[in-house]
Design goal:
Keywords: Membrane, Transmembrane, Transmembrane helix. This is DUF445 domain-containing protein. Pfam families: DUF445. InterPro entries: DUF445. This protein is mainly alpha-helical. Among the domains are: about 120 residues, no CATH class; about 140 residues, no CATH class. It is built from 18 helices and no strands. The mean pLDDT is about 80.
C-alpha cells in the first residue's frame, strides 16, 4: 500500500473508462426520458409513456447506484453526507474487523486441523523425501545449517558448558557402584584376561631388553659389606626368577598369579558396590581427577577435535555422515509414503505445532493485519482500493440503470393494466 505501481495505474485507467461508460448510460436514459416526454406531449401515443417510465426508473437506479458506489470512496459531490466516504473514514475499523474475521474463521483450531488433515502432509512429505534429488537437497541444507551452527559457536563457551555439565553430572552421581558392576561383568566374562595377556607380554619383553639395568638395580641395593660377586649372583638370580615368573604367567592361563588377580578383581568389584570406605575413596579420587586442569584441557581438546571432525564430514559430500543422513531420509520418505500409521503420526505432529502457533500467537497475527491497515494513508489506500475493485463497482451502476429501467417499465405496465 506504499506505492502506486504501473499496474495500479493501468487498473485506474480501466476504472475511468468504466465510469465514462456508466455515466454515458445515465445521460442516455436521461435523453430518452426527455425525448419520450416530448413525444407524449406531442401526441405520439401511449408507447411514449411506457418509454418515459422506463427511462425515468433507469435514471433513478443509475443515480442511486452512483451514490452508493461513490459513497464508498468519497463524499458524493464533495458534500459531507453522513455515512459516506466509508473507506477513508472507517479504514482503521475495517482493519480491526478484517483481523477479527481472519482470527475467527481462519486461525481457529478446528479450521487449521481440518485444512492440514485434508492436505495429507505426511504422505506428501514422504513422497517428496523419497526422491533422491530431494533427499540430496535436504542433506545439503542440513549440512550447511550444521556447519553454520558450529562455526558461530565459540569454542570457549561450548567447552565451558560441556565441562560444567560433565563435572556436575559426575558430582551428582556415585560412580563406584556402576564401576563395580562393570568390573564384575568384565571379570565374569573374562574380558580382563586380554589386558593381562598384553601386560605380561610387554613386561617380559621389557625384562629381556633391560636385564643389565635390573641386575644393576639389585646390586645397587645390596649392603656395602657383601662381596661384589655375591651381589652379582643375587642380581642374576633375582632377574632370572622374575623373568621366569612373568614368562610362566604369560604362557600358563591357569597360573596361580592369574587366579589371584581374578580373585582380587572380583573382591574389588564387590567392595566398589558395597564397601563404604572403598566407595568414599573412589568418590574422593573422582573429585580430584575432575578438578585437575589436565582433565578440563582434555575436555576442551576433545570438543575441538569433535567439532573439526563434524565440520569436515558435513562439507564432504561423500562422507559417511552425509551418506548416512541421505540414506536415512530416503528410508524415512519411503516409509512415510506407504505407512498410514507413520503418516498419521507426522500429520499429528504438524497439526499440533500449527495449532500451538495459531492459538498462542493468534492475537499477534491478527494485530499484524490491524496495525498494517492502520499505518496506511487513508487517501492513498482509497485510491489503491478503488483502482483494484472500482471497475467491477461501475458495473453496479450499469446494472442499476438497466434493472431500474426494466423495473420501471414493469411497474408502469402493471399500473396501467390495473387501471391506475
Amino acid at each position: 500500500m506504499t506505492a502506486f505501481t504501473a499496474a495500479d495505474e493501468e487498473k485506474a485507467r480501466g476504472v475511468r473508462r468504466m465510469k465514462i461508460t456508466a455515466t454515458g448510460m445515465l445521460l442516455f436514459v436521461a435523453l430518452v426520458y426527455v425525448v419520450a416526454k416530448w413525444a407524449s406531449n406531442e401526441g405520439a401515443g401511449e408507447w411514449a409513456n411506457f418509454v418515459a417510465a422506463a427511462a425515468e426508473a433507469g435514471m433513478v437506479g443509475a443515480l442511486a447506484d452512483w451514490f452508493a458506489v461513490t459513497a464508498l470512496f468519497r463524499h458524493p459531490l464533495g458534500i459531507p453526507i453522513p455515512h459516506t466516504a466509508i473507506i477513508p473514514n472507517k479504514k482503521d475499523q475495517l482493519g480491526v474487523s478484517l483481523g477479527e474475521f481472519v482470527g475467527e474463521n481462519f486461525l481457529s483450531e478446528d479450521v487449521v486441523r481440518q485444512r492440514l488433515r485434508a492436505v495429507g502432509i505426511g504422505s506428501r512429505l514422504g513422497g517428496w523425501l523419497a526422491e533422491p534429488e530431494h533427499a540430496d537437497r535436504v542433506t545439503a541444507e542440513l549440512s550447511a545449517a550444521l556447519r553454520g551452527a558450529l562455526t558461530v559457536m565459540r569454542d570457549s563457551d561450548v567447552q565451558a558448558v560441556v565441562g560444567e555439565a560433565i563435572t556436575r553430572r559426575a558430582d551428582a552421581k556415585d560412580i563406584a557402584p556402576g564401576l563395580g558392576k562393570m568390573l564384575e561383568k568384565i571379570v565374569a566374562d573374562g574380558g580382563h584376561k586380554r589386558a593381562v595377556d598384553l601386560i605380561v607380554a610387554r613386561a617380559q619383553n621389557w625384562l629381556i631388553l633391560h636385564d643389565d639395568e635390573i641386575m644393576d638395580a639389585v646390586q645397587g641395593g645390596a649392603p656395602g659389606w657383601t662381596p661384589k660377586f655375591v651381589d652379582r649372583r643375587v642380581g642374576e638370580r633375582v632377574y632370572k626368577e622374575l623373568l621366569r615368573f612373568v614368562t610362566e604367567m604369560r604362557d600358563m592361563p591357569s597360573h596361580p598369579a592369574r587366579g589371584a588377580l581374578d580373585r582380587f578383581l572380583t573382591d574389588f568389584a564387590s567392595d566398589l558396590q558395597s564397601d563404604t570406605d572403598t566407595r568414599a575413596r573412589v568418590e574422593r579420587l573422582k573429585g580430584e581427577v575432575l578438578g585437575r586442569g589436565e582433565v578440563q584441557d582434555l575436555i576442551a581438546s576433545a570438543w575441538t577435535a569433535v567439532r573439526s571432525m563434524i565440520v569436515s564430514a558435513a562439507e564432504d559430500e561423500r562422507s559417511e555422515l552425509r551418506l548416512r543422513v541421505r540414506a536415512s531420509l530416503l528410508s524415512l520418505g519411503a516409509r512415510m509414503a506407504v505407512e498410514p500409521r507413520l503418516q498419521a503420526k507426522v500429520d499429528s505432529w504438524v497439526e499440533g505445532a500449527a495449532v500451538y502457533v495459531v492459538t498462542t500467537y493468534r492475537k499477534e497475527i491478527t494485530s499484524l493485519i490491524t496495525d498494517t491497515v492502520a499505518s496506511w494513508d487513508a487517501e492513498h489506500t482509497t485510491k489503491k482500493i478503488e483502482a483494484h475493485i472500482g471497475r467491477d463497482l461501475q458495473f453496479i451502476r450499469i446494472n442499476g440503470t438497466v434493472v431500474g429501467s426494466l423495473a420501471g417499465l414493469l411497474i408502469f405496465t402493471v399500473s396501467r393494466a390495473l387501471g391506475a
